[in-house]
Amino acid sequence: MSFNIDNIIRENIKKLKSYSSARDEFQGEASVYLDANENAFGSPLEKNYHRYPDPMAHAVKLELSKIKGVPPRNIFLGNGSDEAIDILFRSFCNPGIDNVIIVPPTYGMYEVSANINDISLKRVNLTPDYQLDLEGIAAAIDVHTKMIFICSPNNPTGNSIRREDVETLLANFNGLVVVDEAYINFSRQKSFIQELTEYSNLVVLQTLSKAWGLAGLRVGMAFASEEIIEIFNKVKPPYNMNEASQELALAALKNVDQVNEWIKHILKERDNLVLTLKGFDFVLDIYPSDANFILVKTTDANAVYNYLVEQGIIIRNRNKVELCEGCVRITIGTPEENNTLTEALKNFRV
Prior knowledge:
Helix content is about 35%, strand content about 15%. It is of the alpha/beta class. The protein has two domains: about 5-255, Type I PLP-dependent aspartate aminotransferase-like (Major domain) (Aspartate Aminotransferase, domain 2), CATH 3.40.640.10; about 255-345, Aspartate Aminotransferase, domain 1 (Alpha-Beta Complex), CATH 3.90.1150.10. Pfam families: Aminotran_1_2.
């Protein structure tokens, strides 16, 4: 099938004239700025934040470009990956008409964003081994299906989705395939960013919230064709990424070696935690993980969760999530935190 972005973009977005901010109309350096109605006297902080930030976060994109091997023109930066997800719905899906496909169990914001934007959801559950049901997805696609969301490594299951299955969708679906790689830094599978030149209908989401440890800054990334990124930039608010987040993200991106070292420690701790948890009789299964968390099937997820809350230890109860009955999700902590968890569980009784 031949993908054509004009066939899926909303008509009102095609005609949209984006807001032109003061920083869009003038780029460069000047000695006096009297164009943006800012407070020229400064801000009541140690560092001045009285000027509007770079609307396109060019410096951050340039640094990311060096790390990811992708030109800045193929990068969108937003207020967390959730902003990118919302822009996808607002740009490509007509409310009350179009639909998207999700593959539960998966990240919950796809459904929330669809509901906010009045877009129908089609659910095609993962198989029992948490892989794509390609036949089910093919049967669910209709003329109003605009996007398929795939989280890989998947949240909450932790496993990576088979690459060849995603490639099958990319090659045969005449809409957007959105691959959410929030946990890709912990995975043995390579990023789909490398396939952007191969598939014009591919959108890859990543974040600085996980391996990079910047959850509080809310820095999300989308990687896609230049055409798709231009639409993102057209629809986004003029200053969607604040100056403080841009500055701190730029500083963090200079420390790749530190992040890689942390990833090694997290993976080692993950293996150690899995080994220890397997020794508890209330643990029925621990699913393979390519993320910084593990999904653990227990004899009574509610009891495990409530017991740990009483001990001041918070994990995620996934018992009510389809295909995750009896499961809890445990983030990999520091050695001390993981030890506190396992010591507490020694006293747990069903």
